Each structure stands twice: as C-alpha cells, then as structure tokens.
Amino acid sequence: MNLATNATKPMRTFLPIVLIVLLASTAIALAQDSPPPAGAAAQTNPLSGHSKMVYGYVKMILLSSAEKMAEENYSFKPTDTVRSYGQILGHIADSQYMFCSIVLGEKNPAPAIEKTKTTKADLIAAIKDACGYCDKAYNGLTDASATGIVQLGGRDMPKLGVLTVNTLHSMEHYGNLITYMRMKNIVPPTSEPGFGQPPKN
Known about the structure:
By secondary structure, the chain is mainly α. The chain contains 7 helices and 2 strands; from the N terminus they run ααααααββα.
C-alpha cells in the first residue's frame, strides 16, 4: 500500500482478495465435521481467541516501534511523497478506530490523529488509546459472533474478517516502519532476540 494514500483507497483492490481468503478459511474452519485439534478443542472460542492473541502481539510491535524511534526522527521521511514516521503511526491509529468501530457497531470516533498529532508522546498515547478501543472489539468477539456480517468498503464481510484486515493493515505499515528504523540504524522490535517471548524463569 502506498504510504501517501489514505486508509480507504487501497481497500478497493485489497478487500476483494482478503474477503475471498477470509470467507473461505472461516467457512472451512466452522463447517468441518472432524473435531478440531486437541489444543483448539480446549478453547471455547478458538478462532476469535487466536485473532485476539495475534492482535496482542501486534500491539506490542506497534508500541515498541513508537518508543524506539527518537523524537527528532518522528518527522523523518525518505522522500517527500510518503508519510513521515509519525504520520504512519497516526495513520495506523486512525485505521484502528475505523476497523474496530465497524465491528463494535459504533460511529467511528475519527480522532484524525495523523493530521493533529506530531510529538512522540502524543503519538504513543494515541496508539495506546486506539489499541484500547480495539481491545473492546477483539475481547467482545466469540466464534459465534465472528460470523456476523458487517460492511467494510461497501462490501459484506464477517466481523472476524474485519479484525483480520485490521491486523494485516497494522503489520503492512509496520513493514514501512522497519525500513525507516533501519535507515536510522535502529533494530526493529521483531529483529530483537527473544522479542515477544515469555520471560525465562
């Protein structure tokens, strides 16, 4: 996705592909006659539970990325035609509200973070608030409610699909942040040894 575009433009070409993949995989998972693996059977909601777990990891990545970059580099951009580091973080936060408000059935708070927040402290706080808002969507989802159909980009999509797109979108732009960090000789969070692993006793 081009950094200079907004959150809705790329959805026109991105959504059809994601929709097909998500609907197919969700239908297969929900309709299978054979019992799920032992690990999944132990969970009450294996599909939505897994989505929540992955999102928890994404939140760690986003917050660590926001904290790693120095304040003076939040305005850094490799070229004038792309977003700055801070603008990418703001865009991610704005998009979280967009996707998760759809799943929650609420009006998008639309805080316009990308256009109004520039400092490191403000953007870290904005990312935390946006993730907190999305927590309500992920925490409130069950495997039964995950198949509820909502509208995203003018298309029908299950709630689980929308949250998956949210996670994919965040990771897509994390790829941009990685490039910016490398250009500033910063090791991205996911390249750190043991990142995201539980501490050893």
